Amino acid sequence: MSTPLITVEGLSKAYRIGLKDEIPDTFMGALTGWLQSPLRNLNRLRRLNTFHKEVATARSAGNRSQQGSMAAPDDGGLSTDIETDIVWALQDISFEINQGEVVGVIGHNGAGKSTLLKVLSRITDPTTGRAVIRGRVSSLLEVGTGFHAELTGRENVYMNGTILGMTKREIDRKFDDIVEFSGVNKFLDTPVKRYSSGMKVRLAFAVAAHLDPEILIIDEVLAVGDAGFQRKCIGKMQDVAQSGRTVLFVSHNAVALRSLCQRGILLQGGRSVMDGPLPEVLDFYLSSLNSVAAQEDLATRTDRGGKGDFRVQAIEIRDEQDVAINTVATGQPTTVAVQISDSVNCPQCALRVYDDKGHFITQFDSRLNSLEDDLPNVSTDVIRCSVPEVLLMPGHYRVDVELFAEGVRQDQVKAACAIEVISGRLHGRPLKDRNNLPSIAHPHRWVYQTPCQKEA
Ligand SMILES: Nc1ncnc2c1ncn2[C@@H]1O[C@H](COP(=O)(O)OP(=O)(O)OP(=O)(O)O)[C@@H](O)[C@H]1O
């Protein structure tokens, strides 16, 4: 049997809460900082040393309490050691990936997906365990990473290629394809700092995918591009995969995962809880998402993103009489009330509706459809979205929520609430129950064209 391209053994990664930007988490990081600013970093290195001692203490405490595992609760939630403020972003992960495998890494917010890809891309070191990579890795993890802001698009393409170990001639050969794919032709000689985030992603993806990596690692970044560009990227990743390369792909997009990956690894609370054929892993993940939406109290959930100054406390579905309801009938006028943890100046909210297969069905985004009472300086802790007629067909849906204040994303929760839609009246007429209903009912009308109309 051939040697796997990636071997991960007992991999764990601990972070110390609150020191994200202050302290490097590797000795190499500390050393680089030292060279830049010796005095400040003397202090940093002392604290790094303390951090590593704390990690060792936490680990040995864990070994005492649960033989062979780390000092972390096994509750599927975020693993935080309260005494030392250590977050175990990854815990005891092991797997192998062979050449040509296309693997989707799946999980709730904060499950450890990005950390895993950062370790595999050598952006951060593991705290314990090891990851052996046998091949040239090209990764695209965050918008703009890997680009030097002051250099032009052209210069960045050459810099990235050189980092990947390619010769100038090799990059020259790929250059036109990269530029054509990215669509940033006109801005090639503009410094990347002037690019929009969409342009950066386009160029970064084009570079990562065209520079012949043996292993291509892509994080959620595709979410930034438009639907057309996303399709193009999926197509390109399929080409890369078909040419025998290995692809690791983090995404919440079920359609993209299904079309690209054969295998899925599901992370939960930093642990790998399922590794198998993608459809099975994805279905398990989606059903767990739906049950989280139906059962867990939104206010106390920790698997959320955003800055966190304000959080969404609760989401209620209300009927015409403003009474909270659990099920909605197709065609029913409905209001969604989003309760915020504090009074916020002009909050904005996005609700995204997915069906039980993870397909993105529709969205209600106050940033796109301006608020009816669009008054400046309104402070409120409840934002309401009224839907004159629910066009969802009977079935189970989940709603992801995002909350923004002054353009900053403050909260982001996947599967924040579940909606059960039952049969009702559509455009005034009773809905006939049938198998195989689509998810959405577009308003429409059928007429017979009379012969007379045909001639006209
Ligand atoms: N540099 C850091 N310092 C402290 N904690 C961190 C750091 N990076 C990640 N974490 C924490 O580690 C956990 C795993 O984070 P990670 O970003 O890997 O999750 P994720 O599955 O990629 O989440 P998302 O889907 O929201 O991007 C989270 O609780 C996160 O807050």
Automatic annotation (TrEMBL):
Keywords of this entry: ATP-binding, Nucleotide-binding, Transport
Pfam families: ABC_tran, Wzt_C
A GO term, aspect molecular function: ATP binding
Stretches assigned to the ABC transporter domain: 71-294
UniProt cross-references to InterPro entries, sorted A to Z: AAA+_ATPase (IPR003593), ABC_transporter-like_ATP-bd (IPR003439), ABC_transporter-like_CS (IPR017871), ABC_transpr_TagH-like (IPR015860), Bact_Polysacc_Export_ATP-bd (IPR050683), P-loop_NTPase (IPR027417), Wzt_C (IPR029439)
GO CC, one annotated term: membrane
Family designation: Belongs to the ABC transporter superfamily.
Name recorded for this polypeptide: Teichoic acids export ATP-binding protein TagH
